[in-house]
Structure formats: structure tokens, C-alpha cells
Amino acid sequence: MSQESLNNTAVARMENSGDALNHADALLEAITADKDRLFTVLQNCREEVLLAALRNPGLDPQHILTLLKRRGIGPLITAIYTRKYLVEAYSVKFALVAHHDTPPHIAQALLPLLYIFDLLKLCQISGVSADIRLAAERKIVQQIPTQPLGNKLTLARRGTAAILDALLREGVQNILEACLDNPHLKEGSLHQFLASSHATAEAVSTVARNSRWKSHPNIRLVILKNPRTPLIWFTTILPGLSAATLRDLQSSPRLTFAQKELVRQARSGSHT
């Protein structure tokens, strides 16, 4: 071997020795750093250093939350979850469920421990998987019957389509009003509500007056097919309907005698 080759080999050994020493120092610092220094350690890109930091006795929820702001840390999330004392803080539970890299079985295990409005947040965070979003939505729907009115109103203003469906079925007037202004409310859901036994005369009138929904043809028609619809809405809506639609309405078995009479009069007027 030439002298140059020997020199290169010696340099490489020194570099490897230095790397090993630096790596050992980084691991030791991860375990022993004080609380302030630990935030810097958590910016390290090496997984083994971050795993060592989880053994630091000064590690607290703020450190975990800092770590959970990073992507591509699936193995670390599993390591955090297996150390149950690291998951005691509520903020950590939520951050784990919401994290893109959290394994599904961990997120599903923590989901039932979250408050209802944090479940709602999960439904609205773009990075959350579809399965977790659906599970959070279902959990909210399950809890709706036991929620106080104030919480229901907030859910009506901010909830997803599935949450609004459940709220509409409760048939509470001020909750209905809040649902009508929620952009997530679908026409099909409102149509189904108006055709159901939950739609009282007051509820029908609320929809018929609503600036967003009153001009929808399908909504106007289902309003006229409800036997609880006040007669004022027949006199308001009927003049704009076609003869075929009026004929179908008059033959509906659900309408009251007074409602059918107004439809008959509208048909007679349309023939003159």
C-alpha cells in the first residue's frame, strides 16, 4: 500500500472516530440536557437522538408538542405512546390523534378521550385521515343527545353535514335556525328533515323564510307536501308552480283538506 493510501486510511479512521464521538455526545446530551436545551435537541434530524431524548427526565408536555410539530416521525410517535406517562397531558393526546403520522390504532385508542369540540376540530383539520375524521364525527353524533343547548348551537354553526343531520332530527327551533346558516348543510338533508315528522309548522315556516333556502325549488315543493305547513306558504308559493306540479300536489294523500282546497283554487286560477 502506498504512503498516500495509508494517509487516506488514517484520515478516514480519524473522521469515523470523530463521528462516533460526536454521535455519542449527541446521545448523552439528549438524555441529560436541561429543559431549555432540550428544545434545541429536539430539532435534531437523527431518530436515535430523538428516541434518547424521550428518556430525558426533564421532558415535559411542551417538549412533546414541539416534537409533534414535525412530520415523518412515525416510530417516535409509537415510542411516545408506549411510554404512558408521556401521554398523560390532554394536549399531547389531542396532538397525537391529529398528527398525520400517528398509526391508526393509536389514534383510535385516544379518540374517545377527547372533548367534543376537539373532536369537531379533527373533522376540520386537513391533515387528519378520513377514517379518524369519520370516527370523530360519529363520536360527536353519539354525544349530541346529552349535550347542553349552548354546545348544540355551536355544533349547529360549525358542524359537518353528518353532525347537522343529527341536530336537525332533534327538531329544536333555534338549533334549526343555526343549521340553516351553516354552509355544510346539504339540500338533501334539509329536504329529508322537512319530509319527516320532526318538521313542525314553526320549523317549516323558519325554512320558508330563510333567505338561503326559500328559493330552492325542491325545498319549496317539499314544504308544500308537509301536512303541518301553515296555509300562508301555500298562498305564497303556489302561484309560481306549473299545472303538472299543482295536479300532483292535489293528489297527495298527506295534505289536509284546507291545503288541498288552496291547491284546487290555484289550479282553477291557472286555467282561467
Distance between the termini: 114 Å
Structural class: mainly alpha
User: What general form does the structure show?
Assistant: rod-shaped
For the sheet with most strands, the description reads: none
Which regions are unreliable across 5 or more consecutive residues at pLDDT < 50?
6-21
Secondary structure blueprint with pairings:
Blueprint: H1 3-32, H2 35-41, H3 47-53, H4 61-67, H5 74-82, H6 90-98, H7 104-110, H8 116-124, H9 130-143, H10 149-158, H11 161-168, H12 173-180, H13 187-194, H14 201-209, H15 217-224, H16 231-237, H17 243-250, H18 257-271
Helix pairs in contact: 1-3, 6-7, 8-9, 9-11, 10-12, 12-14, 13-15, 17-18
Task: Provide a descriptive summary of the structure in words.
- Helix content is 66%, strand content 0%.
- The chain has 272 residues and is an all-alpha fold.
- 28% of the residues are buried.
- The model is unreliable at 6-21 (pLDDT under 50).
Question: What characteristics describe this protein?
Answer:
18 helices; 272 residues; mainly alpha
